[in-house]
Prior knowledge:
Low-confidence stretches: none
Number of helices: 25
CATH architecture of the largest domain: Up-down Bundle
CATH topology of the largest domain: Growth Hormone, Chain: A
Helix content: over 70%
Structural class: mainly alpha
Number of strands: 3
Amino acid sequence: xxxxxxxxxxxxxxxxxxxxxxxxxxxxxxxxxxxxxxxxxxxxxxxxxxxxxxxxxxxxxxxxxxxxxxxxxxxxxxxxxxxxxxxxxxxxxxxxxxxxxxxxxxxxxxxxxxxxxxxxxxxxxxxxxxxxxxxxxxxxxxxxxxxxxxxxxxxxxxxxxxxxxxxxxxxxxxxxxxxxxxxxxxxxxxxxxxxxxxxxxxxxxxxxxxxxxxxxxxxxxxxxxxxxxxxxxxxxxxxxxxxxxxxxxxxxxxxxxxxxxxxxxxxxxxxxxxxxxxxxxxxxxxxxxxxxxxxxxxxxxxxxxxxxxxxxxxxxxxxxxxxxxxxxxxxxxxxxxxxxxxxxxxxxxxxxxxxxxxxxxxxxxxxxxxxxxxxxxxxxxxxxxxxxxxxxxxxxxxxxxxxxxxxxxxxxxxxxxxxxxxxxxxxxxxxxxxxxxxxxxxxxxxxxxxxxxxxxxxxxxxxxxxxxxxxxxxxxxxxxxxxxxxxxxxxxxxxxxxxxxxxxxxxxxx
Length: 510
């Protein structure tokens, strides 16, 4: 278990690296004069390179070993944190983030793969889920440190001023990742090599010793025989390649992998994690309140991920997926309803913050509008479309009136549903579905798809909020989740308590 926790620290770095940007957006948008698509790019650029890393992480690990590649991932995390904190322009910030993306892609693929390869089948689901647990710990840690830095910056403490926290808040947010990256690199020196990888390289004695540590001597001997039998059978077949994934024999497992990979991201989870303060500010909350709500999102995510780890080997993968995704569907529909029911009203105190003159806005004072479209039409009628577009975010935040409790409850319910289901279960399924001979290539392939969808969702989310509005955006997420729920019920099998070799015989056609 200790080894699994150390390896899963890569998930913590991934969660921190991806989510810390949520607190940075408010600062870099005016500092670098970013458009909404550029703002989205600052978030999604990390995912772009992580997508590329997923294409090569599996095959490289098959050659050099899981542990060796994870060490390089830790180095990339540290370089990214330092480079992001010292960025002097939007371009240098994006480059530094993209360097970290290579570490994200490698650790996201290899950490669950490694853990699955050292785990007894009775505990495999729980131990692989440690990776997802650490991802959500990293997300929560990022939300917390962002808020803490904001609060420290408001104090007059001499150490705050000497460290420049009051002037360089977003740089400190990004730079803090250096410490856990160094700890991860050092921790990996206490991690043994993957026994399945060792047996693929015919290093039998070391593999047997490692398996004995986790399974006991008797089970280790049986496990070595079973793995060797699987490797020998695979050696008689053509060498695994990306083309083999499209053969009829693997149609079922590849289809499940692709659909689950898309579903995990197309429901909008990273829109909530990476833009949480922006969403809450659109609900009319102030900056501090928005950051506090983001911390609450992280804590709920953490709590329900722990429940998933406790339940995944008790209740199975499919029940968690079914009920969790059903909760995602309901939550997104409630969010769409909540934002669609919002009204818009400007009072006298709201008007001094906008370039449109007070005299012009005074004609709207006290008027209530039932939709964002009608509010926009009224503002443009007294000013111009250009002025409305330029000040839309502030106008919406100042005028919107909606049930903030309903919005918060729906977002928390969505996060809870995700955390107990598709979040951790996806990586467990990925580590179980594919035959040993092509597992590295297959996980890289479906991980690539997952990351590509994540990149698109993150990139366009600020644009969606600006052009489509919150209600339509969340409705679209809910419809995708509904389609995924139908697929889960009809297609996905239960994999609980079945060895990797038995799963191959069951799911892969001869």
